[in-house]
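so i finally got all the pieces together for this one. its two components total, 596 residues if u count the protein bits. some of the lines might not be protein, just check the labels. i wanna see the whole assembly predicted at once instead of chain by chain like last time, that was a mess tbh
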Amino acid sequence: MLRLKSSLWGLALVLFLLFPVIVSNPAYRDIAVITLIFTGCATSWNMFSGYSGYVALGSAAFYGTGAYTMALVANHLHMTGGAAMFWLVPLGGLVAMLVAIPVGAIALRVRRHTFVVITIAIFFVFQLTAINLSFTGGTGGISLPYIPWLASYYDVPFYYVALAILIFAVILSALVRRSRFGLQLLAIRDDEDRALGLGVKVFQVKLTGFAMSAFAIGMGGALFAMYQGQIYPQFVYDPIFDITIALMAFFGGFGTLLGPILGGLILESTQQYFTVTFSGGSLGSLYLIIFGALFLLVILFAPKGIVIYVRDWWTRRAVKAELATAGATPVESGH
Amino acid sequence: MATLLSAQGVSRAFGGVQALNGCSLNVEKGSITGLIGPNGSGKTTLFNVITGYVKPDAGKVTFDGRDITNARPDKVFAFGIGRTFQLTRIFARMSVVENMLVATQHDEGSLRGLTRSKSSKADLDAAMEWLGFVGLARLASTEAGMLSYGQRKLLELAYVLVANPDVILLDEPAGGVNLTLINEIGEKIRTLNKDGKTFLIVEHNMEFVMRLCDTVTVMHQGCDLVSGAPADVRSNPLVLDAYLGGGDDEDEDEDSQADNG
């Protein structure tokens, strides 16, 4: 089982690495870059929100902060457009993480719905600030140094950096899940007060997780800014970003390692593909309705996401098989 | 015997309700102390004050000579005071053994926890040993939410024990479980007590309390009314009055207050 699992992960990795070699259509490559950036952000978001149960809907604040870090620093240093700008991607993540510490220190004092509302409110503070300050360029945004790469090649470096961010987020999530720290996050999700009474320093743990998850999201934002070459406050501090990454995680399987990857790849790529293919055609924006309906179906019939749905089905089958061989067991199903 | 845990003159009000009103309690080292009283007399609130979930308006809590008033629950636990809850609280979506591992905390920062695997060999051995003690070792990899109510009670006892606390506060360990399991839990407590663990037990099952405890403190309307050996307490007229209704009745449900904490 473990062997099968690791070979599947390995196979997926090889396919991801080969994608730009196989696919040369710039339109598809463009979809792939955006999809990978969002999937990486969703995975990182899930590492905190999915494990701890604290659904943060203000992570665009860190995405935007990463994007502005990239834009402002690149311009300030008078960088010429090119590969050297990729060094600013981790810097964007770092700044986003530093910003996340005070944000988390405020928002993590409250729980559940209040936490969600506070994170949304803090996000809007960031958006309004970016719109109103002069050094952020206001609503006009900021242009980044022009990158003089050929169109046939342009997407490739971005693709691999986006893939690196996704791999980073996946490995970090996996390590956290195996660590004592991850166990503490899960305990907080199930019963925070009980965890506190068993010696878990809940506030410290939550804040660390929150700041860590902002790192890859900030890197995603920085890469996005570099990729687009021009950023606007309403598109990097974008409320839709928060909804999108949360939906990806929920769609695929909230709190699972594979869930946000699956959700991100399916949702973002199909949406981008439909947008490119059908917009303006006879189908018009009908695809959006079909897309929404598909989403509703999954939420209705597999509300915990695809991964958990399949896993539960698998467990039920295994338990049934065990019952058939061992006779009755005293284990009752609690829920 | 020396006093291990003591509360002196603890008061706490929730809105207009005076849940605790100058309550005092002493738990001797190595004893099994019972804490009884009618519903709403403040037993669970006193537990919450001792374990740091509720801050007292007045009064002092000391443990092993150290003032622990207002200490946070994680600190209180680190000092060596473990507790269970009246409404059993386990981590339902984690496996039974993972539940145990949460409690094997070390006093360290969260960054240290990042680099540490969730189970060292020693922690895992301790977890399995205590699961064996309560008879749940077989279910170690089961999701805790699948356990029956009685099994959850045992798990909660086990994961408090795994951290090796000096004193264990049990909030209604016999509530809602069948007679066989009540006796079994009683036996476990007695065994642990022989090994030197101190217990403070809130319980409504009088037979259970009278048989198990060395000392019983009776609470009434937020105060400690009487303390003494079970036989003395049982025949004390004040106690009979409190239970059968001599003074004005207080029908506040202490559970709702506890959950607010």
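The interface with chain B takes residues 175-176, 178-184, 186-187, 189-191, 193-202, 204-205, 207-208, 330-335 of chain A (CB under 8 Å).
The beta strands of chain A are 142-143, 230-231.
anyway lmk what u think
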